Amino acid sequence: MTSGYPRMVALGYGKLVRADRIFAVVPLEPGERGDGRRTYVHVEGVAEPLVASRSERAILTDVDAALTDAAGIPRAGRRGVREGEVPP
Description:
alpha+beta, three-stranded antiparallel β-sheet, two-stranded antiparallel sheet
């Protein structure tokens, strides 16, 4: 049973934001990285982007799962689809 409300997404450094408030993730260039800094996360209602220690791909995966869960949509299986194969 879903709550209908999106879950919180961990950004690292003890920061959590609601999945439905994230509107952009921007990976840091290699020269900007350091001390675990990986991604800028733009959040609705926050003027400056938050610095996350997680990759943009990991954050977007969690956002997708949280929003899918909140919408009550069953998640697809973990099995990948091979070339020429029809998904279930």
